[in-house]
Automatic annotation (TrEMBL):
Region entry Disordered, spans: 223-256
Family: Belongs to the sulfotransferase 3 family.
Highest rank taxon of the organism: Eukaryota
Protein name according to UniProt: Uronyl 2-sulfotransferase
UniProt-listed PANTHER family: HEPARAN SULFATE 2-O-SULFOTRANSFERASE, URONYL 2-SULFOTRANSFERASE
Main location class: Golgi
Molecular function as annotated in GO: sulfotransferase activity
Bilayer topology: Single-pass type II membrane protein
Amino acid sequence: MELIKNISTAEQPYLFTRHVHFLNFSRFGGDQPVYINIIRDPVNRFLSNYFFRRFGDWRGEQNHMIRTPSMRQEERYLDINVCILENYPECSNPRLFYIIPYFCGQHPRCREPGEWALERAKLNVNENFLLVGILEELEDVLLLLERFLPHYFKDVLSIYKNPEHRKLGNLTVTVKKTVPSPEAIQILYQRMRYEYEFYYYVKEQFHLLKRKFGLKSHIRKPRPRPEFFIPSPLETEEPMDDEEDDEKWLEDIYKR
């Protein structure tokens, strides 16, 4: 209630950016905010977090000591393959079940890897988010954000491409990140199968949205995926012919 009150009474325009599990304001008598989010490939997200916790980024040589001062040396230098293959808690569920809970919401079952949390997360994406983009296509995400929320994101792509911003972005690259063995990667895929089903669902919805607004996809060649994943969405190389008015579509989103 405190969070809802703080956000609902903030002077506009107001953008709140934090790691918050989805909260339905309307259930508590508040006006639902416009939700946006960006997710990334689950294995890449996990690896980035694993090494960032240990070694930080290029913003400071001792940044890792500031972020994880209590981490023991044997833990800091734990080989990623050992962590995965020997099933250390950090490299197994529920720690790997990370993205879905943020979209699933506040219910305790949202923390339990399974179909229930997955389906609830999908439903919230459809009913409560203006846009959920994917980091691998960030420039297209920014273009759509500028289209949907120009008051907040005007010229965002030119800002993103500014050399000074790029220089700052390079400083946040994780230090000492290495790629696990193929065997370890395969195990991660298996443990994160719900995460990947959600990721590819979001990716497919994002591509449909891009088609709707005439954006062409420029997709990197995807890494091989195990058979249990849902098929990749069709490449969206041509704009979609749709008689529905785009502005009416946005109005409907805001009214949810």
